[in-house]
Every structure is written in C-alpha cells, then in structure tokens.
Amino acid sequence: MTNSRTNPKVDEFLSKAKKWKEEFEKLRTIILDCELTEDFKWMHPCYTYNNKNVVLIHGFKEYCALLFHKGALLQDAHGILIQQTENVQAARQIRFTNVQEINELENILKAYIHEAIEVEKAGLKVEVNKNIELNIPEELQKKFDEIPALKIAFEALTPGRQRAYTLYFSQAKQSKTRESRVEKYVQKILDGKGLKDQPRQGSG
Question: What pLDDT shows up at residue 122?
Fold first, then answer.
C-alpha cells in the first residue's frame, strides 16, 4: 500500500513480520484512515499527531496490540483497554489474537483513535501518581516511622530511584533480609542517593 503518509521503515517491518503480519497490516490501514502520521520508533510502527505519539502497534507471543500512549485518559466506553501491569500509568492496550477481531472492532478502534487525537489536541497529560506503583515493604515503612527524616528523604528521590529501592527491598523473601537491606541503605537514602549511585569519594 503506497500512501504519502506511510513510512518505508514500517513497510520493511511488515515485510519481515513472521507473526501477526495480517493483523499488523489491518491495524495500519485503520490508523492511517484516522489521518495520523506514520513513524517508526522503539522498533515498532508508531503513529503521531503533531509529533506527539498517539498509538503504537506491537506484537507479543500470545497477542498483538494497539498501544495508546495516553490510554489512561480515554473514556473506554467499551471496556476494552488493558493496563499491561499495575506499574504502567499512562499507556493502555487493546489486544487481538486474530484479524477477525480487528475487523469486528474497526469502527470502535477508529473512535478510540480519534478520541486519543482529541486528547493530544487538548494537550492533556496523564497525572503520574508517584505512589501508585510503589508497594512499600513493611520493613521500610517501619523505618519511616522510626526516622521521619528518612521518609522525607525517600519521597524526595526520583520515582525511578524510589522504585529501584522498593523492588530491591521487596525481592528478599525473608523479613530479616529485608530489614538488613533497609538498614544498609538508610544513610544512602538520607543522602538523596539512588541504589546504584556511587558514594562520594574521599569522605571520612
């Protein structure tokens, strides 16, 4: 399919697709009907409006999907948007396992894409809730209660650093190990440093 809005990199991607080829092609046609610009980002066909990412096509072992970059802001009148994991805040998927499902949903998909374009036109942003994806382990919570300054220092860290710490602490199966991990990093957190940050040289 040649079209002024198609991107040769996507043509190449589709020509090499071993799985979901038909599904990808159908999704591509539907999206291009919605007047979006075809781009190729993160090794996948990505569709933009005024250079803002709106929707991406990607495939997995069990399904292929349309990924709406700001899916959390869509109304989802049909209840078909899926949050990949609880840590994903903005993006939402619509999943398919065959081309027939895509054909049946074509009009609904276009409605969702148009809504996603409206979200971009309005300049809406997903409010990222920094606490939503952090499962603070009990041992860390206990330390917060003991040392209020630690909680303040922890909340001042970037979300990525907070996440790295909570994951690292939570990964220990035993409470005792979690406690000793927390203990070990108290000073680092108070210093505003991330898990992997190197300590300052020459101190002490």
Answer: 94
